[in-house]
Amino acid sequence: MAERLTAEAQLERILYLLPAAARGEGRPLRELAAELGVTPEQVADDVTTVTARDFYHPAGSMPGLSILLENDRLWVGPRSAFERPVRLTPREALALGLGVRTLAAEAPPERRPGLLELAARLEAELVAPGVAVPPPLVVVATGDGADDGMRAFLRESAEARRAVAIEYLKPGDAAPERRVIHPYALVAAGGVWYVLAWCTVREDVRVFRLDRILEAREAEGTYEVPADFDPRAYVAEGRVYRADEDVEVAVRYSPRIARWIVEQGPAERLDDGGVLVRYRVADPGWLVRHVLQHAPDAEVVEPEWFRAQVREAAGRVVGTLA
After folding, report:
1. Could you report the per-residue pLDDT of 154-179, keeping only the tens digit for each?
2. Domain 148-240 belongs to what topology?
3. Beta bridge partners of residue 276, listed in sequence order
4. Local structure of residue 297 (DSSP, 8 states)
5. CA distances from 23 to 28, 58, 78, 254, 269 (A)
6. Rounded to 5 degrees, what are φ and ψ at 250?
7. Is 165 in contact with 180 (CB distance < 8 Å)?
8. CATH number for the domain running over 7-83
9. How far apart are CA 318 and CA 311, in angstroms?
10. pLDDT in tens, 23-61
11. Is residue 145 within 8 Å of 110, Cβ to Cβ?
C-alpha cells in the first residue's frame, strides 16, 4: 500500500483522525487506516506525532483534550471539544491569515482569488470576539499565467530597474517587515526561488526567498545595478549565501523530525534514522536560532566554535526563564 509521507499529507490525516475518533468508545486503528488508505502503523505514528507536541505548549494553554491509543483502538475526548464552534486566539488568527495568504502567493494565478477569499472568510468567521485581525495582504498577480506571478513581477521590475516595496516574513517572526528593495537578479537553488536585491533599510545586498514575500508592489524611484555585482557570488553547491562571509556548519537532526528536514532540502541519512545537513551560512545568528528552535532534536556537529555559540545562546535563554 503506497503511503503519503509528506508533512502536508500527515496533517490532513491528523485533522481527520481526531474528530473521527471522538465517537463513543473510539475507533479501531484498522478502520481508520482503511478510510485513509494507509497502514494501522502509519495511523499510530500520526497519533504519536500529535501527542509529542504537547511539549511545545506552555502549561495551561492547551484545551482539555485527551488522546488514548490502547489495544489497537484510538479514542479522543471529550467529544464536546469538536462540537463547540471553533474560535481563534490573536496569535492563531495571525498565523492562519499569514499561512493561507502565503499559500496564495505560491499558488498559480488562477487559484489566488479563491485562496484570498478563503483567508478573509476564515478570519471573519473563526476569530474570537474582540480579537483584532491583521489587515489583509495584497498578493501581486502579474504575468501571463505561465510563470509564477510574484516571480514575473520581480523579474519585470529588475529588467525595468524599478524599486519594489515588499512585505517580507522572516522565519520565526509573527508579522512581516516592510522593505523597499532594488531587485538585481532572480536565482533558484534547492528548488526555491530567491531575489538578490539591494535593501534600502539595511543598505546592503540581501537575499529574499520569494515564498516569504507576502506582498510586492511598485515603489517610487529607479536604480542602477553596480557594475561589479555578480550573482554567482551568492550561489554555491545548490545553496544561496554570501560567498565572502559564509561558514560551513554541520547539524544533526534526530529521527523524530528527520522526515521534515529531508523535505526542506538535501540531507545525509544516518544509520540511526536521523539526518545530517551541511549549511553554508552567511548569518551564524540565524543558524543558532534555527538549532535552538528544534532543540532537543537538532545538534551542531561541527565546527566546535559554533557548538560553543549554541551553548552560550541556550544559556542566555535559560537565564531569562529562570
Report:
1. 989 999 999 999 999 876 567 888 99
2. SH3 type barrels. (2.30.30)
3. 252, 268
4. S
5. 11, 28, 9, 35, 40
6. -100, 130
7. yes
8. 1.10.10.10
9. 11
10. 667 888 899 999 998 998 888 888 877 766 544 444 444
11. yes
